[in-house]
């Protein structure tokens, strides 16, 4: 199941009028690109609205939304003059380009853009509204007990467990939950369990749910006790006489005239609540703040030599620039002011040549922010000419630099992401671990991109995916570090674009869950956003 599905509603205002005796009859065509491809493919069309220059299209586009991908969209408008599906037979009214992230990241997830493409004419505006599809977000919590189940074991009682199946459109069943085994009892009480409603019934509350009971056996040949059927709508009534089920074994029922049942199952409790998503917080106004830190230590090699990771070639971007561009292009859709603080570490800086581990790339210590990713790249290239690569490689100062900002806004309105690009040789492991453990309490995430051919064992340790990072006996309360080796994506050649999309995907994949883990740990709920109409200015 993709992270989220988003429904796009399209409206236009003041479209070009192409019809002589009446108004235009607009249709909107959406095109998308596959990750890493520049080819536009038609995704779908709205209905045609007759005689309107201000259409609100009813047909919605439903797209899979991936935070970590740059999802390019193109909207073309045509004035439909005949029944022909061939677009070249109709009048072009203008087009707009954006990314799905741009729509979602706008205030109230509502983006307004001018339509362009007809020379010398004002083409009007397009209004795009993104809404997360809601049916898939509820999580139900259920608890069951059973009574007087059939005894299946020769010595001692049964060891019962239940298996839940949802029914599919074609009448088949798909397993969706297994309870734990309760040992040696015919009257088990199972632990409460949480399950997404879509897993239980795929949004259809009347769809059959089949439940089978088994007696667990060590050798895996579990004995069938019996089964019953229910539906989400039934279960949602909660604890009541409606939710006591007879467990029936059809084979026994056929054989024995006096057979009643093989026991009963009772629903003890039922509750449902919406699981908040990354998008809820973004729509609610949470801003992502993106800070870049670049490794200026001597182990990168002399920048004037082509072998250096910092080599500035007139013909191609170096690894540092490529990594920055790939990640920055996506992050910037979520950062409203597009101002990115950019720091360097591990160099001797002017005027006196002291070694600094958090110097501003733009040379302005009071405000290290650069305008857009282009501004960061420019400041990076200027710094390379100004400073002397040195050492050691200390991460802790830049981690603490961002942590100080994050510590001032704990209410969930802002979330900080630090991108460290490094050749991976680290000198202050103990201090960095300490800094990360402290930062794990704050609204921040750290992405480390390793460039060059070094062994990145220390970076993998910081990543905490397998073993949560700890310092002086304190374990980080969340996993906030994502490490990615850049060389895995360095294909060069014509596929370079694709590998950059892959890099961005890998680098950003954990951010939504890390943001959610912070909000959940702090009990911060996203502010409720009133539904927006296309007219209302945000």
TrEMBL record:
Top-level taxon of origin: Eukaryota
Q: Which CDD domains match?
A: C2A_Copine (cd04048), C2B_Copine (cd04047), vWA_copine_like (cd01459)
Q: Which Pfam families match?
A: C2, Copine
The protein's matches in SUPFAM superfamilies, at most eight in alphabetical order, are given as: C2 domain (Calcium/lipid-binding domain, CaLB), vWA-like
Q: Does the keyword Calcium apply?
A: yes
C2 domain residues: 1-115, 122-245
Gene Ontology BP terms: cellular response to calcium ion
Q: Which UniProt keywords apply?
A: Calcium, Metal-binding, Phosphoprotein, Repeat
GO cellular component term of the entry, any: plasma membrane
GO MF annotation list: calcium-dependent phospholipid binding; metal ion binding
Q: Does the keyword Phosphoprotein apply?
A: yes
SMART domains recorded: C2 (SM00239), VWA (SM00327)
Per its database record, what is this protein's job? Probable calcium-dependent phospholipid-binding protein that may play a role in calcium-mediated intracellular processes.
Family, per entry: Belongs to the copine family.
Q: Show the PANTHER family listed in the entry.
A: COPINE (PTHR10857), COPINE-5 (PTHR10857:SF51)
Protein name (Swiss-Prot/TrEMBL): Copine-8
> Which organism is this entry from?
Rhadina sibilatrix
């Amino acid at each position: 199941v993709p992270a989220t599905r988003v429904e796009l509603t399209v409206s236009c205002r003041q479209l070009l009028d192409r019809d002589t005796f009446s108004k235009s009859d607009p249709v909107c065509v959406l095109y998308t690109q596959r990750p890493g491809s520049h080819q536009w493919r038609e995704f779908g069309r709205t209905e045609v609205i007759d005689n309107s220059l201000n259409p609100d299209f009813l047909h919605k586009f439903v797209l899979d939304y991936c935070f970590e991908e740059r999802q390019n969209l193109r909207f073309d408008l045509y004035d439909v003059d005949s029944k022909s599906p061939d677009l070249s037979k109709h009048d072009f009214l203008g087009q707009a380009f954006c990314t799905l992230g741009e729509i979602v990241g706008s205030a109230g997830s509502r983006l307004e853009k001018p339509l362009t493409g007809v020379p010398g004419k004002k083409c009007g505006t397009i209004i795009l509204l993104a809404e997360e599809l809601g049916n898939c977000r509820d999580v139900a919590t259920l608890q069951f007990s059973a009574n007087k189940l059939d005894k299946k074991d020769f010595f001692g009682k049964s060891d019962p467990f239940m298996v839940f199946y949802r029914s599919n459109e074609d009448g088949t069943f798909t397993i969706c939950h297994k309870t734990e085994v309760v040992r040696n009892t015919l009257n088990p009480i199972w632990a409460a369990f949480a399950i997404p409603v879509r897993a239980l019934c795929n949004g259809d509350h009347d769809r059959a749910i089949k439940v089978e009971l088994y007696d667990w056996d060590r050798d895996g040949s579990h004995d069938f006790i019996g089964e019953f059927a229910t539906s989400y709508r039934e279960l949602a009534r909660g604890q009541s006489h409606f939710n006591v089920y007879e467990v029936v074994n059809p084979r026994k029922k056929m054989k024995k005239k006096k057979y009643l049942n093989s026991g009963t199952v009772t629903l003890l409790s039922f509750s449902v609540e919406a699981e908040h998503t990354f998008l809820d917080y973004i729509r609610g106004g949470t801003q992502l703040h993106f800070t870049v830190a670049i490794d200026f230590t001597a182990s990168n090699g002399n920048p004037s030599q082509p072998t250096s990771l910092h080599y500035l070639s007139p013909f191609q971007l170096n690894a540092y620039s490529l990594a920055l561009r790939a990640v920055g292009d996506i992050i910037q859709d979520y950062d409203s002011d597009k101002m990115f603080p950019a720091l360097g570490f591990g160099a001797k800086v002017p005027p006196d040549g002291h070694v600094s581990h958090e110097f501003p790339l733009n040379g302005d210590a009071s405000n290290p922010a650069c305008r857009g990713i282009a501004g960061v790249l420019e400041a990076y290239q200027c710094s390379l000419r100004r400073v002397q690569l040195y050492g050691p490689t200390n991460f802790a100062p830049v981690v603490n630099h961002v942590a100080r900002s994050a510590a001032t806004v704990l209410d969930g309105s802002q979330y900080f992401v630090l991108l460290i690009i490094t050749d991976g040789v680290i000198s202050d492991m103990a201090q960095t671990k300490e800094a990360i453990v402290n930062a794990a309490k704050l609204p921040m995430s750290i992405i480390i991109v390793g460039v060059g051919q070094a062994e990145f064992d220390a970076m993998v340790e910081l990543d905490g995916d397998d073993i949560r990072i700890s310092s002086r006996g304190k374990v980080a309360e969340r996993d906030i570090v994502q490490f990615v080796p850049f060389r895995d994506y360095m294909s060069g050649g014509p596929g370079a674009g694709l590998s950059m999309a892959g890099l961005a995907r890998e680098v950003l994949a954990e951010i939504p869950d890390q943001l959610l883990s912070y909000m959940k740990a702090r009990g911060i709920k996203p502010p409720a956003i009133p539904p927006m109409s296309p007219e209302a200015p945000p």
